[in-house]
Specification:
The protein is mainly β. The protein has helices spanning 44-56, 115-118; strands at residues 3-13, 16-22, 31-32, 35-37, 59-72, 77-89, 97-103. The chain has a single domain, classed as Nucleoside Triphosphate Pyrophosphohydrolase (Alpha-Beta Complex).
Length: 126
Amino acid sequence: MKTIRVVAAFIVHDGRIFATQRGYGAYKGGWEFPGGKIEAGETPQEALAREIMEELNVEIEVGKLLDTVEYDYPEFHLSMDCFLCTVKSGEMVLREHEAAKWLTKETLRSVDWLPADLSLIDEINL
């Protein structure tokens, strides 16, 4: 099975976490933590900063690694490094997503998470 390595951002502000709804692809409409694929020669942190700038038009501070999720989708194996992040500068603009929300610990389950992202919900300690 093909393995896809990606990074995801837990963007936290005022006790809330930023979630995005996919706007394209096979999993369109599912909710996820924003991020994307690691390109050749990039560290996971560099990839995450680049992806968030491309997708959301903001510069982030990439903090500690929270977890690496290993999840088998029917078509591929996902290896996702998830980092705690904060916004350094810019205003969020959705360039690739359908929608976005700031969620609290109490409202995290109010959206339809993609399976790999859902496995992280219980580990979030805001």
